[in-house]
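Handoff note, outgoing to incoming analyst
You'll be picking up this chain. Sequence as last confirmed:
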Amino acid sequence: MLERRKGSEAVAAQLVAEGVDTVFTIPGLHNVHLCDAVLDHPDVQILTGRHEQGLALMASGYTRACGKIAVPLVISGPGVINALMALADAYLDSVPMVLIAAGSDTGYVGKGALHELKDQTGLLASICKWNTCVTHAEEIPAAIRTAFEQAHAGRPGPTAVEIPMDIQTQVADFEIVPSRRASPAGAPEEDVGRAVDRLIRARSPVMYVGSGATLAHAGTEVVRLVERLDIPCFTTALAKGTIPETHPMSLGNGLRREPIRALVAQADLALVVGSSLDEVDSGLWQLELPENLIQIDISPEMIGRNYPVAVGLVGDARIVLQQIMTQLGARNPDRGASPAGQIAALKQEEEDSLRDDPGWQYMQAIQDVLDEDAIVTNDAATANGWALHYLKRTQPRTMNISSGLATLGFALPSAVGAKAAFPDRQVLALVGDGGFLFSDYTLATAVQHRLGVVTIVFNDNCYSTIRRQQMALFGRAVAADLHNPDFPRLAEAYGALGAVARTPDQLREALLTAWRHELPTLIEVPL
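Most recent structure output, in case you need it:
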């Protein structure tokens, strides 16, 4: 049914029709009409940011945690530029996102209007999966519908819709209806049959699970196939928890870990589910997979992109795994003894070797007080490696990192977004002292909206990962040593709580205290 509205009102109504219940924004001269229109929908929570990079990362953290899209709503020019890093991160990690951006008044484009960029639409096109600039108000609902369809379709990713200032205030007749979601599709049954034949014949297969399985909600199917074939399974960082890491056939995450290397080295078949096998997922191109490689991916261009495949299965990971289970039927591989005993021994040997490792000790202190459904977000820091290798997660979407972009400043905004999605769950951000100051302003948002995230800052007064590399390569370091603030007092200046934990036991106690507070807490761990 057609309704007469302003363009800004049509934007808000279409977002609500798409199921949006959270908007992250910084109001400005060019998006005030858009922000005001959201107020007409009281079921939509509006969270105020302090920098568009942070608010777009909050939207990413929200989606990574719950799967629904939260919308960053930004001004033109600097707002768009500031949001680009988060859009690039979403593109590389296949995170569905829809950015609503203001645009210059169409009557003044090219005349030096305030905030006008040389080519804002082209700039967004260089980062996003799909984008458009609306030129007539009547186009608004269709543009937003397409943005949501494209954000979810195939390999998910970020999209953007620009709404010029004059279009926001134009009055027109609009029909508000939600976009359509394409039904997930499986692979050709003939290809599935060839894959099943190879799985049955393999004597020592392994399974490698990536974020495509998490995005497809394929955790149940992954576990069923692992148990059906008695096959060791390890995951990428973004798929951590998709198979519970306490499962006897799970090797967890971390391609540099000995248990994984040992199992992969003896494998005669690898089943890769939802990983592009890029530089990160291949362990800096060091992962040696057998020639007998079966790859499942929703994107045809990912099949065989980095490793030659014996069988490529293009389709939704959950559907394809169901197809494999169906075709397996009563067929059973003849492999002799289960590898579960070998896996248990390898994992125990690794744990015994790590007991004196400070990183392992700190992660165990966290593990002791971490709920099963707690959400952990990581920066690209030394502690990121500790968490990915040593923290055990048993549910999908409970460990979020910036994988492809590996950017500093990701963890805290992402944690705030996750807390907005799940206010009653524990949310923990793990950062280094260098990365924390990339986005410490996000504490202001967390305090203002009473989002009780907990942040642990591991402080060694340097960009430690880079400093170690410099020392190894050159015997000296440059621009890696840091002068830091008093982190707990900085948190308190924002209105958050601050604490210091100098030992794993103190960290455990500090976390127990922090979980009891509604306000966010920062815990500094001096190293």
